[in-house]
Amino acid sequence: MAYSNNNNNKRPARPSRPPFKRRPQQPTQPAVEPTVEIGQRFPLTIKRLGINGEGIGYYKRKITFVPGALPDEVVIAEVTDIEPHYLVAKIHKVREFSPNRVTPRDQYAGLVGGFDLEHMDYQAQLDYKVDVIEQALEKFKPRGFNKFKLLPTIGMNNPYHYRNKAQFPVRMIDDRIAVGMFKIGTHDLVDLPDVATQHPATMKVMRGIRSILETLSIPIYDERADSGILKSIIVRVSEYSGEVQVTFVTISKKFPQLRALLTAIHEKLPQVTSINQNINPEKTSLIWGPETVHLDGKKYITEQINGKFFELSPRAFLQLNPKQTARLYREALDALDLTSADRLVDAYSGIGTLGIAIADKVGEVRGMDTVPEAIADANRNTKLNGITNAEYFVGEAEYLIPNWVADGWIPDAIIVDPPRTGLDEQLRTTILDVKPKKFVYISCNPSTLARDLVDLVKVYNVEYIQSIDMFPQTARVEAIVKFTRKD
């Protein structure tokens, strides 16, 4: 069954979701707290899903989060955590199953992260991703929020094998090398021979490297002892070219058996065209360290998005779902409704993928990012595509834009694609001061989007919010907001 709309550049006609109704007020905190103990079990009816995809019910009027439970299910919940204002429980047994429950493809769904909704029918996932935006709007209540037009989520024909990058820790388990993900809430690694959401090439290379490592004497990182050399492996594939880029994360520049490792990769994994080393000496949950060294092959792999080419260095940010990224950019371009005379600001530009994709529709693009390497990549990518009307700058939008305006360069349009933390407060103020006529906000976090809308609707009307499923089988959702300025 197909869940995505057609792939034409113009927005297809599709039914809009009517303005949503407010949810009934949930029960307030009772004066007397229910007596609850860890391990206690009780029947619970699941009312809805929370923002992280967890089931939500009420035990004696106290909100209870149950990962893996679905709306309309009746479960026997077992308490795992007690907090002042909520409970956390696990499913002991399902008494009444939701018609939307399906069997996950991945046997470790629910054990490791990244498969929050794989037990849920895909159409129900798409509906949920509109609902989670509603929840955020109801929480922050930007003016007029209950009249916002929320369009149905754009999904994928095949909501699997879409992730173009795998970032897996490496550890020793029972004297064997394990490459995979940590169990939820722990640092216990689960070796993953296959992941249904990963592009097949990333897993083939990842497992091939694991087999090579088994034959070499490269010290594997021991987290408890903070010893060893190799901590993580990062594999990225280009959907366009099939090139694969591999980065080994080590605790130091020292890399025993490196030459033997490179030789074996050349012989057994010829699709790998770029090999790098990242040095991260810190004992931290962050995968990347500050220094990256090119070891062998090309410095970049090349990806294509909507006819534009992008060279990707190991740390270059690119959306993990190339097919939906192309659709996202077409939807954003459609929402901006640009002319050849417009001046466009591409805020949070990264390596320039969004602005470069739009550049031939406008008079001029100026973008910015705080990461110098990203800006170097962006300006190199403009040259790669023969773009002469786009330039990228190192700095923060909230400072660069006012300087440009003071110099007489006034933007007609702005597109923002911030991280999960949302817009910087000063940037919100800058946008409200400059008031570009055309404005599109791409959000990867409904909560910070709804927070930002509280200010933005003072100057702009929300024309619509279009959700797009960049991460099937997870609770994450991307949203495009089209604004019209109040004149």
From TrEMBL:
Domain of life, per lineage: Bacteria
Pfam families from the UniProt entry: TRAM (PF01938), tRNA_U5-meth_tr (PF05958)
Binding of S-adenosyl-L-methionine, residues: 319, 348, 369, 417
GO terms, biological process: methylation
The TRAM domain, residue ranges: 35-93
Keywords noted in UniProt: Methyltransferase, S-adenosyl-L-methionine, Transferase
Polar residues composition-biased segments: 1-10
Region (Disordered): 1-34
Entry's transmembrane regions: none
PROSITE patterns the UniProt entry points to: SAM_MT_RNA_M5U, TRAM, TRMA_1, TRMA_2
Family: Belongs to the class I-like SAM-binding methyltransferase superfamily. RNA M5U methyltransferase family.
Name the UniProt record assigns to this protein: 23S rRNA (Uracil-C(5))-methyltransferase RlmCD
Organism: Periweissella ghanensis
